[in-house]
Amino acid sequence: MESAKHFRATLAFAAVMVSIVAASSVAAASELETVAVIDFEYSDSSGEPEDQTAEHAARLVLFRQTLEAELGKEPSLATATIPCMANGCTVSTMRADDLLEESRAAGVDFLVFGGVHKMSTLVGGGRVVVLDVAENRFVFDRVISFRGDDDEAFVRAARFSSRDIAHTVPRGRQAPDEHPEPRRGIR
Prior knowledge:
Layout: H1 2-30, E1 33-37, E2 41-44, H2 53-72, E3 77-79, H3 96-105, E4 110-118, E5 123-132, E6 137-147, H4 151-168
Parallel strand pairs: 1-3, 1-4, 2-4
Antiparallel strand pairs: 4-5, 5-6
Helix pairs in contact: 2-4
């Protein structure tokens, strides 16, 4: 008899705990902020004689996909898409107002974009920017550099950028302390 009471009490406690965990999981899921990573621009001023257009296009896709996948692993972020991504939109191939409108309509909180530039055989660089869509305000703007012109170098640069974004981009729409002044977004 005593063990039956203990069992029912344990079962009741477990049910309460499950409901608490379930409620907090729903709350946590609703607190996720969405991020869309659109295609990055690419330029090459290395002057190499061999045409590497196809290889660089593939590496740029790898860079974007790696950046998106790594951001998607962050507990506070969820990745999203906007309609223009089906056509490979970039900030230079689409009007800023249209890009903002699509992002807002898709419920995107942050839009990630930028460019990669090959300076020489061994040195690449670029810029990674994160826009707070609701405020049309930059919350992250970094110049990156990396060594190498192969898949590994692009993946390494994307992972580094992802970690930097995850540690820098403000959560809950609060401006980071290091940039208290509003920074204009895309126009």
